[in-house]
Amino acid sequence: MVKMPNCCRKKSQSAVPQTVVRHLFPATLSPIIATILSLSSTWNAIAQTSPSVTPSPTPSVLKVPASVTQISLNGRTLSGAWLQRPRKNGQVTTLLSDGAFRQIFGVDFLNSNNPARQPVQWFSSTTKPIVLTTELQAGYRYLDITKFAQQAGWQLQANSKTLTIVTPQAQIKNIVASQQALDPSVTTTRENRIVVDLDRPTPWIYRQGLPIKPAQTSLPDDLDAIAPKATTPPNREWTITLDAIADPALIQRYTPAPPPPSLPNLLKQLLPEPAPPQPTPDTLIQKVEVVNNQTILRISVPFGYAPRITTLANPNRLIVEIRPDAMVERNIAWASGLRWRQQFISLGTERFSVVWLEANPRTVILKPIPTNPDTLAGTAPLIQTAQKYLAVAAINGGYFNRNNRLPLGAIRRDNQWLSGPILNRGAIAWNDSGQFYVGRLTLQETLIAPNNVRLPILFLNSGYVQSGIARYTPIWGQSYIPLTDNETILLVQKGEVSIYFAGGKAGETAFPIPQNGYLLTLRGTAATAAAQLPVGTKVTLTSATTPADFSRYPNIVGAGPLLIENGQIVLDAQAEKFSNAFIAEKAVRSGICTTATGTLMIAAVQNRAGGAGPTLAEHAQLMQKLGCVNALNLDGGSSTSLYLGGQLLDRSPNTAARVHNGIGIFIQQR
Prior knowledge:
The protein is mainly β and 670 residues long. The protein is built from 9 helices and 51 strands. The strands form 12 sheets. The protein has an 8-stranded antiparallel sheet with strand order 20-21-22-46-45-47-43-44, with helices on one face. A 6-stranded antiparallel sheet has the order 3-4-8-7-6-5. A 5-stranded mixed sheet has the order 15-11-12-19-18. Strand 18 (306-312) and strand 19 (317-323) form a beta hairpin. The chain is globular, with a radius of gyration of 28 Å.
């Protein structure tokens, strides 16, 4: 998540606990609350029988699968979707989701214009690629790997919900590393590289790891001196894991040297024992080890660089190039109405890697996808949330407070507000007919009571806390825990103020939310309004958006800032109350936009070649270069996640942060 300005990240007084109390409450509750709890079991029944209560319909695209399928590869259990079907000859056809095929086996996908046929490369020729047939089902695109597996010598067996795959044991014949000084201005392939020679093709994966801490090679002259801070970001470890056994001589070649002899006893008393010497960060291969019949290469990659890994046949080789432009450009027709693109986009002398999906809004459905269907509190990796809802594609959505995992912006689904907008920030709205609208959004709710009492409700189901009146509905969850000290809480049921509560200290007491009503929380100076709403007062609500056009759309996600409107860059992050630090920050960013032809695009703008990600101003320019005529910046940084069919396209899954909500794309099955 990109860092939020202080107004959106801090909570007044004490923090809210991460776990919202749903069923159990402290024993020190007042008799009034105890009475409410005794009635709480009847609220659901009232809500079900009352003609005034109409539960929001759940779209058919939001069904949750009963289970997750598994793959056992050479004895290791991994997550991956698969199918098997009997054939007339008594054999079976095996289909594997393309996300699992790429992530587990290292298969590369080549450009295509036919979504029914996917060319792939895996220790094979790029001029005569292997072409696999595809099938779209329940959020995944499956590839028929039956013939591929036979030719590779794989043994396949289905057992319950696990597909067991055993590949022939491979041997690593040699590992050769060539290294030279890295120049950020160089973008050719003549840079640091590793060549792994194999006796046969074998599965491989790679993963980004943690920064490498430089080892202290000698003691400073002044033991009390403060070590100088590094002026450049540290190298980062990447691991490349192959289902192959390396010869012990190869492992020894890349094993760190043993520690030097111990210091004499007298010096030991005066000086600390030196740490065993470690490979320096500029050593390309840090270590080679064999674990559970797999060989793991640990490599050191400078900031702004990444591995580009390719495979060759005859001889079987895996080639690792350390490059500032490691991304491979792609243009793949993934499904009817959905295309996967990867390309470098230039701004002046800078080149940014951009990964995006192009969708035809007349053949797909978009929905906001919160992490938890039962409460607005909670976060999860986008890859898990998308799979939960069976979305074929998704991107992370709006901002949230990472401490209490509550939303900080607009979420509206199927004409029902899940969470209200804040700070007049940018939002995108759409309907199921493929029409979109962008702008800066405000929601005005007004509580109307007798004697011409009209009270503004500033926040709806929001984790954003300011003085004023906020409203919390059953969508928030079964209960509400005060976010600030000394809130005045009014329970409104069937359009009538029923009970007053003293909120007490923030984060301590849970107050049930009625299924046929809501809670009003009065914070700060707004507490005086309680005198105008005595118990028994009949109240009504009015609701309107500014601009009014937003009200015409059933689905809305807010984030900001707004980047492009009607083809023109309209970025004004200060007007949307973003901090100066946020505005100037260079970070990976997410965006959503529409083009002049009506195409929808969801994009992850990654780092510039050899450097950090774009500023907001650069993000707006990049989205414009992609052809966007209306564009919105979404939450970014570690939150940025672009999902497609069981895989993240823009980053290693282990580097993606948990997010609160996303925007899911669903294929309309014909």
